Amino acid sequence: MNQTPRSVLAFGAHPDDIESAIGGVLLRHRREGGSVMAVLLTAEPASRLVEAEAAAAILDVQIRCLGLRDGGLWEQADLVPRLRRCMDEFRPDRIYTHWPLDAHPDHQACGMATFRAWLQLSGSDIPRLFCYEVVLGNQTTAFSPTHYVNVTEFTEPKKRALFCHASQRPDETFYPTHEAMMKLRGLECGCETAEAFVEVFRRPVHARERYMF
C-alpha cells in the first residue's frame, strides 16, 4: 500500500471511536494531502457532537453525524443503505471501519453494515477496506493485524484530539489503554507507536499481494 489515497472515508459508531483508533493515520493522510470524511453514526447527548467537532478540527478532517440512536444500531433497518449513500457521495479510495468481532453491539453493527455496503460497490475503482481495533482485550477480540502504520510523530496531536472528549474522562478511562495499544503495535512492527489494521478482501489473497503502508 505505497500509494497515498486521495480521499478517505472513516466510519465510527460513536464520538471518540475514530479518533482513538485511527487518529494518527488520519493525521498522516491529511499531511500527505488526502481529504478525510469522518462519519459518526451516533452522538448522544448533543454535547458529544460538539466534542467530536473540536477533535475533528485538530485532526483537520471533515465530520458528519448520521444522528442514529446510541445503542440501537442493530435495529436500524436502513443502516446499510445509509452507509452506501456515504460511499457513493464521497467516492473514497480507502474506507476505515470497526472490526466487527467486538463486545459492543454498536461496533459490531457499524463494522458489518460497512462491509455489506462495500460489497455492493461495483466497477474498477473499489476502495480498499480496513478494519480498526477499539479497546483491545476488552471490546475488540480476535484481531490479527495485516497492516501497521507508524504514528510516532502524530502521537501528541492525536492525544489532544482525544482529550476534546472531556465528558468521557479520557485520562481516567480510554487514553491509557490506547496509549498502551499504540506502544504494543509499535513494538510489533519496530517503531515507537503504531496503529494496526485488518484489510478485508473480496477474494482469497496470496501473502505477497499484501503491501504495507
Summarize this entry quickly:
This protein is α/β, with parallel strands linked by helices and 213 residues long. It has helices at 17-31, 46-59, 79-90, 105-119, 155-162, 174-189, and strands spanning 7-12, 35-42, 62-68, 94-98, 128-132, 147-150, 194-200.
Describe what this molecule looks like in 3D.
This protein is of the alpha/beta class and 213 residues long. It has one domain (7-202): 3-Layer(aba) Sandwich (Rossmann fold), CATH 3.40.50. The chain is built from six helices and seven strands. It has helices at 17-31, 46-59, 79-90, 105-119, 155-162, 174-189, and strands spanning 7-12, 35-42, 62-68, 94-98, 128-132, 147-150, 194-200. A seven-stranded mixed beta sheet has the order 3-2-1-4-5-7-6, sandwiched between helices. Helix 1 runs antiparallel to helix 5 (155-162) and helix 2 packs antiparallel against helix 5. It is globular and about 40 Å long. The mean pLDDT is 93.
Parts with pLDDT < 50 across at least 5 consecutive residues: none
Our Rg estimate from Cα atoms comes to 16 Å
Number of helices: 6
What fraction, in percent, of the residue positions are helical? 25-40%
CATH homology-level superfamily: LmbE-like
What is the string of SSEs from the N terminus onward? EHEHEHEHEEHHE
Q: Write down the overall mean pLDDT.
A: 93
Query: The CATH topology is what?
Result: Rossmann fold
Number of strands: 7
When the domains are counted, the total is 1
CA-to-CA gap between the ends? 5 Å
